[in-house]
């Protein structure tokens, strides 16, 4: 599939969101699955992982969050998950999607939660992948702390990040997958270099800097989420703590099911891909036992670790 030919920019209220819709060729789609990517990336991240695994009778919508990929930045409010969720809800309406199963990875988990709280009528089910959804202790990385600043941050993002980032990009990207295997062509196919664009880098830093304070207030509303929910995380995730985020979220959403995979790091959208696809099918109404699939993934992780 040529992603460029299928990408559409849609005005969602003064700014545009970029999205790609994949529909099955044979039958009319009965279910839509909407993927929300994490920080420092774009729709290419979930697209690369899931676009070739579209279940029958389902269509997949991949969206660039505001300021990421080819989407416009929009207003300053768009650094918060609430505004991003509102924009995605508008996009769904304009693209003729009444309801969808929402899949959110990392920062995308916060946006998915906001969508479920603010627009429950649009959410048929939720799949949180290594979600960032609660306040945490420790802040953000030193380079994001610099980049978030108005003047110094702009200078840093324009003059330091492109050069320094190009040197450490692949190493930093591989670190996101640790301790699991890094796909050889991930950097190229996901176009991870896009994160080094000065405005995008500074925007991403401001999103991350604002997330914990947002989650402090927003997390009080998670108990209102009524959609059937599955949560997937790894016990080796050193980027988004499963204890602080995924396990707590599972306790607050009563109708949720939690999978904590042994040996898995942060990239559950890749390492646990088969489990995610099965979870999508389960939320769409199929009778599927997810436990054997989870155990199979854990066994593969263990085998890969042995070399």
Automatic annotation (TrEMBL):
Instruction: Please state every residue range assigned to the domain named AB hydrolase-1.
Output: 32-267
Molecular-function annotations in GO: hydrolase activity
User: Does the keyword RNA-binding feature in the UniProt annotation?
Assistant: no
Which keywords does this chain's UniProt record carry?
Answer: Hydrolase, Membrane, Transmembrane, Transmembrane helix
Positions of transmembrane segments: 123-143, 149-169
Has UniProt tagged this entry with the keyword Membrane? yes
Protein's recorded name: Alpha/beta hydrolase family protein
Give the organism's phylogenetic lineage. Answer: Bacteria, Pseudomonadati, Pseudomonadota, Alphaproteobacteria, Hyphomicrobiales
